[in-house]
Fold this protein.
Amino acid sequence: MWKPNATVAAVIERDGRFLLVEERILGQRKLNQPAGHIEHGESIVNACVRETLEETAYHFQPEALVGVYQWSPPERPELTYLRFTFTGTVTGQAPERALDDGIEAAVWLTRDEIVARAAEHRSPLLLACIDDYLAGRRYPLGLLRDFDARSGG
């Protein structure tokens, strides 16, 4: 049975720079937003908070949904990712925290620096999400409703 991969990502901007991660995938360095899969029983918003902390050691408070994106990698067209991308603020840092396996560093880059490193983008969603953020796309978090049986609906 076909099922899309539900993922989250954070677009975090500070002083014209965006928080990204440099990660190793199949031996190649890639750039991406802090991002990852929603875990069983986890809300979409909480998944973004967790993934941002695990990948960057920054505490993140989502404030708005930037967009929902559907993408299939050309080399694996049988895969489909549904990405929920949020923006918000950094509320602190845990510098002693080890980053997730495969994450080499959390970096702050300008849009121009990100564009200059296009060959390293993990997917076209990286720049699409930033450009949507810069275009002012913001949707209320109340758009997302968690009806997990454990949450009480």
